[in-house]
Amino acid sequence: MIKIAPSILSADFARLGEEVAAVAAAGADLIHLDVMDGHFVPNLTFGPPVVAALRPVTDCPFDVHLMISNPDRYLEDFAAAGADYLGVHAEACLHLHRTLSRIRELGKRPVVVLNPHTPLVTIENVLELVDMVLLMSVNPGFGGQQFIPQAVDKVAELHAQITRRGLPVEICVDGGINEDTIGPVAAAGARVFVSGSGVFGHPQGYQAAMEAMRRRAAEYVDASP
What we know:
Blueprint (H helix, E strand, L loop, with lengths): L2 E4 L9 H10 L5 E6 L11 H7 L7 E6 L7 H7 L3 E5 L6 H10 L3 E6 L17 E5 L14 H15 L4 E5 L7 H7 L3 E4 L1 H4 L5 H18 L2
Parallel strand pairs: 1-8, 2-3, 3-4, 4-5, 5-6, 6-7, 7-8
């Protein structure tokens, strides 16, 4: 199943609640919330109060992506605010196994995230702990960046490893995803796709954007060996 997770980083922040409601009504599978601290990445966004304020707007699952240093300090706050998935960067966690286990203890779905330069070997010993691996296909910190093509091979390698080990782990790709780039990563094994400007900037609207991406992904999946 192809899942589209619109990133509200590209939404109109003056109308954020309305934007979340609209994109959920248009068929989003997840709502992706990028939390940035100005330290781990060179940008600032929002914290738990904004997540809590948006939570009553929709029942669509919230995929909270913590692009922050020392994420352990804030896990309880984001869990209480209404996150369904909590994603932490392997690069930001001193004790990754402990952090992912704590997310599960909080009743949330653990996600481990890798930057483009970080090798898969970094997470091979924690794959059993997560529901999803998010592979960045841009360098984190800003929306609207160009997709890094090398992410396709990384997805394929991770997919082979997950399949070989028989794990129920989804692969998500985040960065530069739109109708033109989604196909190859879907064929490589990804099934969850974060898209900011590809959804919120689409000239024909949110529903048309997500339907077009699902069609393109399905075409590549059907054509793959």
